[in-house]
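[Q] Does anyone have a clean structure-token version of this?
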Amino acid sequence: MENKILALYAESQIHAGKGSHVGIVDQPIQREKSTGFPIIQGIKGAIRASKLIKEKEREVFGNKPLAEKEDLAGSIAFSEAKILAFPARSPESVFIWITCPLVLARLHRLKKISGLSIPKIEENKAIVSNPTMLADGKLSLEEIEIEAAVNPEATKWAKALSSLTPDDTMKEHFEQNFAIVPDKAFQNFVTTATEVIPRIRIDERTGTVAPGALWYEEYLPQDTIMYCILRNASITGENLLESTIKALDGQMIAIGGNETVGKGLVYLKVLEG
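[A] Here you go.
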């Protein structure tokens, strides 16, 4: 069965929350239970709300829950969004994108990209797409340093994935600033290097913060790249996958919470083989 990979490039921070939480962060983001990697659920609903699918909208998405008596399943299946590349501060490049072999292997199972394979990297070492990312043979990420070397596999993956960025400037930056780090290192970064933002609610009577109205929300940082899978799930034989992908490619939608304060803007781009 053919899969289409739709990338979601974060043009602003994304808060896809999982509800309240007892801990330092009151409203954390959604994560896989097994790996702790970020995910975004509800992609189908966000795309439907964007109104980008105008022709045969009901056939693509199915009937609206609790709004229609007739039970009609959608002809396109939408997966949750999974992490593909995560931005990290680096003094040599301002910021770079990192990923890991596990993430690339998951993607490669779903979409074989010509000329690419899953790189094998040593524990506590990374491979990079460009020598200018390194200082004395080391890659600086946030507050840590890791041994690294330029590798053709990293360069090939950087070139393939750079097409998912929104413009030529970011495409070039991606190709020149891409690293593949060990799985455990990547897990640590996507767990500890997200953004945590304090939020308040103002009491309209006093003009000050309402009692108890301070909370902390977790966000995926701007320039994070996620991806989801679209596939034909029609039981009528009609295939609307190509027309759906065409309508979404290169468009902007909002995902997650706090849209009215500019959060959750994502650029959609289809990953070509």
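[Q] Thanks! Anything notable?
[A] Residues 59 and 263 are 30 Å apart (CA to CA).
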